[in-house]
């Protein structure tokens, strides 16, 4: 299944996100994912946050991207061996503010690609520039994000628009934008964002944002579609939406896993999902969501 973006390109409705994926796992996971049927891979150049010591888990919310090169090596092997053709895949990575052209070219080099299918503004906030190709955000003297107040979101979006004519990617979009920031982007855009990628799962449904995007022809993509699962439970002490008794009951009813129920729920909202897993069996099960459909009552 795929969703047609507002510029006519097709985006597979399920992909594999590589956030928090270890570099030494990347090759086997990507090759196996392609064999299973995945054609959509989502990555990013930069981790939005400091490289914290593993013992210091507080605020450690985005320290495991930085694996574009490893993804690129796996993709190159898949192309070289004839496992898949470049035109069959949908590859997304993300920009940060300032030096957008240079950053895009650096990502293409690491990914060993001639073009991207989708390039997103990673966060609606600019941090001080630490150099093209660096993978950690700048910190101030208090070890907090060093915010650059001289770069506006409008400026960044116009930089993204300028790249469209260069043929470096097929679609541009935004990430982690709420309704108001999405509205502002639409107001200043010559090229409408094709996608808005944001957190969405049963405990954080973002229903108004999903509907706003749909109304304005923007594809909603759900990152963290399983609610962070074990990671959020360990880091923040929050409950996992996979332990909810109602969803366990639905899993039994449909003879599916709770994960499959949660992914299917998002898909039936016409929302693209990019779950992450490093386990081969889960990789298979996450993709097995097209042979059943939740009733309206169960969706509600």
Automatic annotation (TrEMBL):
Keywords (alphabetical) are: NADP, Oxidoreductase
Q: What is the protein's given name? A: NADP-dependent oxidoreductase domain-containing protein
Organism (species): Quercus rubra (Northern red oak)
The record places domain NADP-dependent oxidoreductase at 14-299
Q: Which residues bind substrate?
A: 122
* Domain of life from the UniProt record: Eukaryota
Q: Which InterPro entries match?
A: AKR, Aldo/ket_reductase_CS, NAD(P)_OxRdtase_dom_sf, NADP_OxRdtase_dom
Active site feature: 65 (proton donor)
Question: What's a Pfam family in this record?
Answer: Aldo_ket_red
Family listed: Belongs to the aldo/keto reductase family.
Q: Name one GO molecular function term.
A: oxidoreductase activity, acting on the CH-OH group of donors, NAD or NADP as acceptor
Q: Where is this site: Lowers pKa of active site Tyr?
A: 94
